[in-house]
Design goal:
This protein is of the alpha/beta class. It folds into two domains: 128 residues, ATPase, nucleotide binding domain (Nucleotidyltransferase, domain 5, 2-Layer Sandwich), CATH 3.30.420.40; 159 residues, 2-Layer Sandwich (Nucleotidyltransferase, domain 5). The protein is built from ten helices and twelve strands. The strands form three sheets. A five-stranded mixed β-sheet has the order 3-2-1-4-7, sandwiched between helices. Strands 10-9-8-11-12 form a five-stranded mixed β-sheet, sandwiched between helices. The chain binds zinc ion (ZN). Zinc ion binds next to loops.
Length: 309
């Protein structure tokens, strides 16, 4: 059979990344562009098409060998009908039929998906949860995204809102969340919450990277901040483990770069909150694909949608 290739695109509020990926999930060429101006949809389509040509040229792959494109987006997506349900980062993209819009503007089929779901798909196929049929993936950053792989499929739920781990309520009296809930996980382990906690402990602003480094070299105050993040994460993860009984829990995103400073106390706390029979079986691990997880997942999504497993 002739070799098949796919484009993976990861649309962010600030930058958008795209890559040409082979069927095994190897990136052959990549590009990053600014997302500024994407509120102009025609400009977005043009930028995308130019990126496609350049990526193919760079990888010396003829465009006719490219089977499809997957696009990951930072908001809920109706993956079946190809509609972005809500997207706050780019003006005018909520309730936008992106797949229909790109038809004819790029020369192959396009599929769209929520970016955390893309990450979960990539980690479960070629990353830290490779081989697992049931995986829970969290991506920790400004927001806390989540993706569930259940029986090898992305779980979206009937309203395409499933898997929003960041909005799992942890405290009935906690802070109000922009999602409309109260005491959501994101309010305790999102970037801003961690920065606020660090400010309290250190009496000044401390960058997250510095706090990871300090924790590694044994700084007790930094260790305390990460332990508190781990505790809140463990409540959510322990609960989800008990409900879903996954094989693997994958922790990714910028905050996860804290590494053992976060993962070691997290594993210890999860033992406290997960059921006895489960906790020995479930592996909690750092994501393997880093910042590429989103675009790799988007490319793999296109591949699987086209039935080329
Ligand atoms: Zn919330």
């Amino acid at each position: 059979m002739k070799k098949a290739y796919y484009f993976g695109v990861d649309v962010g509020g600030t930058f958008t990344k795209a890559a040409l990926v082979d069927a095994a999930g190897k990136i052959l060429s990549r590009i990053q562009v600014s997302s500024a101006g994407f509120n102009n949809k025609a400009y977005f389509a043009e930028t995308l098409y130019r990126a496609v040509l350049r990526l193919a040229l760079e990888a010396r792959i003829p465009l006719r060998s490219v089977r499809g494109m997957g696009i990951g987006l930072p908001g809920p997506v109706d993956a079946q009908r190809g509609i972005i349900l809500s997207l706050t980062n780019i003006r005018g993209w909520s309730h936008f039929s992106l797949v229909r819009f790109l038809k004819g503007r790029v020369p192959f089929p396009v599929f769209i998906e929520n970016d955390a779901n893309c990450m979960a798909l990539a980690e479960s196929r070629i990353g830290a949860a490779k081989g697992a049929s049931f995986a829970l993936c969290l991506t920790l950053g400004t927001g806390v995204g989540g993706g569930l792989i259940l029986d090898r499929e992305i779980y979206r739920g009937p309203f395409f809102l499933g898997g929003e781990v960041g909005h799992m309520p942890l405290d009935a009296h906690g802070p109000v969340c922009e999602c409309g809930g109260t005491g959501c996980l994101e309010r305790y382990v999102g970037n801003q919450a961690i920065a606020a906690r660090a400010r309290k402990v250190f009496g000044r602003d401390v960058r997250l990277e510095d706090m990871s480094r300090m924790a590694r070299s044994g700084d007790r105050r930094a260790g305390k901040v990460w332990k508190d993040v781990a505790l809140h994460l463990a409540l959510a993860i322990g609960g989800l483990m008990n409900v879903l009984g996954p094989e693997v829990v994958v922790i990714g995103g910028g905050v996860a770069q804290a590494g053992p400073a976060l993962l070691t106390p997290l594993r210890a706390y999860v033992k406290k909150y997960a059921m006895r029979h489960l906790k020995a079986k479930v592996k909690i691990t750092a994501a393997a694909l880093g910042n590429d997880a989103g675009l790799l997942g988007a490319a793999l999504l296109a591949k699987e949608k086209l039935g080329q497993k």
